[in-house]
Sequence to fold (147 residues):
Amino acid sequence: MPTTSDTVSTVLQSTLVDLIDLSLVGKQAHWNVHGPNFRSVHLELDDLVADVRLAYDTVAERLAQLGIAPDGRAQTIADTSQVSDIGPGQLGADKVVRLLAERVDAVSQRIKDSLTSVEDDLPTQDHLIAIAQTLDKRAWFLRSQQK
Ligand SMILES: [Fe+2]
Fold:
């Protein structure tokens, strides 16, 4: 089993939490979007959620490979996520696109900011780079639907 630093495990755990919460926010928005462009935004959000779910599975399994128990419990997500809530109720499509693009960008930026701190574990760094690339693509897809 490869050795790992506290920094690598901390970065992976915080990324796991943010990605799980981003997937929950994505589903909340998928269900509550309404108005013009409903269908395209509704479908786009499920594509986002599918990518984010794959990403957090990769992160959790990297933790497991390093001998660290990933913590994806609801209480842990509620206590430690850095993803901002989007609030309850229906949301217009334009607002959904803006809110989600901001949150996808923020998670991607936190991942990019962490990359130099995990350079002693290149497989972890490589996973995180790939996830940031995917998030940037998703943010672009979302933003391109704005008026
Ligand atoms: Fe659905």
